[in-house]
Design goal:
By secondary structure, the chain is an alpha+beta fold. 51% of the residues lie in helices and 16% in strands. The chain contains 3 helices and 4 strands, in the order αββββαα. Strand 2 and strand 3 form a beta hairpin. Helix 2 crosses helix 3. The longest helix has 28 residues.
Length: 128
C-alpha cells in the first residue's frame, strides 16, 4: 500500500515539474530602443519603441502604448509592424526636419532590434 502511495506522489511531482517547464518556454523577452535621434524627434516626443518576442508564437513592437504585431517570429515578418511604428513616430512629430534618409536609418534600427532579440531568444531556447 505504501508503495502505491509513494508512486502517486512521485507522479504528481513529475507532473508539476512538466507543467512548470512548459510555462517557462513561452517566456517573453523584450528590448527597447530610443529612436529620437534616428527619427529626428523633437525633445518633447517620447520615441522609445519596444520589441518583444517569445521565439515561438508572438513577436511585436510597442510604441506609445500600442502593439504592432509581426506576422511571425522572423525579423522579415515585421516589415508591416515597422512601417506602422514609423508612421506613428511621424504622426507624433518626428522626421519633419531631416530628409527621409534619417527615417531609413530608424527603420533599419527597428529591424535590427528584431533580428538581435530573436537571435538571442533562439539561442537561449537551445540551452534551456
Amino acid at each position: 500500500m505504501k508503495t502505491k502511495k509513494y508512486f502517486w506522489m512521485l507522479m504528481m511531482v513529475f507532473a508539476v515539474f512538466a507543467v512548470s517547464c512548459d510555462k517557462e518556454e513561452d517566456a517573453e523577452s523584450c528590448d527597447s530602443e530610443d529612436l529620437a535621434e534616428d527619427f529626428n524627434c523633437p525633445v518633447d516626443v517620447d520615441a522609445i519603441a519596444t520589441f518583444c518576442a517569445d521565439g515561438v508564437n508572438d513577436s511585436y513592437y510597442t510604441y506609445n502604448g500600442t502593439d504592432y504585431y509581426c506576422t511571425g517570429v522572423e525579423a522579415s515578418t515585421c516589415d508591416g509592424a515597422i512601417a506602422q511604428v514609423g508612421i506613428a513616430l511621424i504622426e507624433a512629430g518626428c522626421g519633419t526636419k531631416k530628409k527621409s534618409a534619417g527615417m531609413e536609418n530608424g527603420l533599419i534600427k527597428l529591424s535590427q532590434m528584431a533580428e538581435n532579440l530573436l537571435a538571442e531568444v533562439r539561442t537561449e531556447s537551445l540551452y534551456d
